[in-house]
């Protein structure tokens, strides 16, 4: 994962942050050894941020768009209420088994519901109101995901979007075929003007946009 933080600062932050659980450490390692684009993993520092936010909110329903190998889902589950659920959507079926294996290792199989397919088609079919939403999928659809999940987020609930600094590409004019950079820039600009949410762009790792529904 690209990080906007100086490597020395990030190493110091990780050294002074509670360690990953054994399951998350194993998942982190296996993802880096076996899966293409392991930089997509949330990792230690960002995972702990997501975990802390979840613990503060104590949500009963969480929606995640972009499971990858399951690291962020496990972190987000830390704050779930006893009967709470996390619904996680992944478009790539190759990641399903690894994520399911680690959900089981973490004792979360009964709390996590996995969906494989296009999130734009799946989200409307999930008839729930969410306390917390985490968006970490294809960047060109961030604005569409936000508009789709906002009505499904309770008042005072939170939506978090990952990679909003996009390796610094947001500071340059994107190429005509760079739909992901255009998607992130358009999303950031739309959120900046959106009066329906209070927002904080947190410059940690590749950027987290934290939004509270008003």
Report on the structure:
The protein is α/β, with parallel strands linked by helices. It has eight helices and seven strands. It has one domain (7-213): Rossmann fold. It has helices at 7-15, 22-34, 43-57, 71-76, 96-105, 119-122, 142-149, 179-193, and strands at 61-65, 85-90, 112-116, 130-135, 153-162, 197-202, 208-213. Strands 3-2-1-4-5-7-6 form a seven-stranded mixed β-sheet, with helices on both faces. Helix 4 links the parallel strand 1 and strand 2 (85-90). It is globular and about 45 Å long. It starts with 6 loop residues before the first helix and ends with a strand.
Structural class of the secondary structure composition? alpha/beta
How much is the radius of gyration in Å? 16 Å
Percentage beta strand: 15-25%
Main pleated sheet: 7 strands, mixed
Could you tell me the number of beta strands? 7
Which CATH architecture is right? Answer: 3-Layer(aba) Sandwich
Give the ordered list of helices and strands.
HHHEHEHEHEHEHEE
